[in-house]
Amino acid sequence: MVHNHQFCMQWFLDHFNVVFGHGSSSTSNLTAIAVGVGMVIAFTAAIFAYLQNWFETPFSWFAAFLYGSRSIALFSSCSCRSPASTGSPLRSGRFLHAADLVP
Predict the structure, then answer these.
(1) Which of 13, 15, 70, 94 matches a 20 to 30 Å C-alpha distance to 43?
(2) What percentage of the chain exceeds 90 in pLDDT?
(3) Closest C-alpha to 81, from 71, 90, 72, 92
(4) Domain locations in the chain?
(5) Is the dihedral of CA 79, 82, 88, 94 positive or negative?
């Protein structure tokens, strides 16, 4: 790749900070903030649950709801049409195989 000049390693190394520097630093900062806030919430809830026994079960249910709601929201936002309306082989009641994907 170096001899046909389609990929220049020197240009990549010279421009790495310009191309990737801003995005990776902002992503790292946002990740650090999210992890820090999550640790503060988790530590505070753990101390409170240790001191107040009644708090553990309701908070566990609330945390499970928040954890599960992300996947439910993603699944419900999927704009997939039902196989019966697309003329898919699934209409016949059989499973879709890789051979069905070939036109």
Answers:
(1) 70
(2) 25
(3) 90
(4) 1-51, 56-103
(5) positive
Pairwise CA distance, residues 16 & 25, whole Å = 13
Residue-wise burial string across 59-96, b where 16 or more C-beta atoms lie within 10 A, e elsewhere: eeeeeeeeeeeeeeeeeeeeeeeeeeeeeeeeeeeeee
Whose tokens are 């390693």? That residue is 9
- Tell me what pLDDT residue 77 has: 67
Residues 36-59: pLDDT tens digits?
999 999 999 999 999 998 998 999
CA distances in angstroms from 39 to 32, 35, 45, 49, listed in the order given: 10, 6, 10, 15
Q: Select the highest-mean-pLDDT range: 20-34, 37-51, 64-78.
A: 37-51
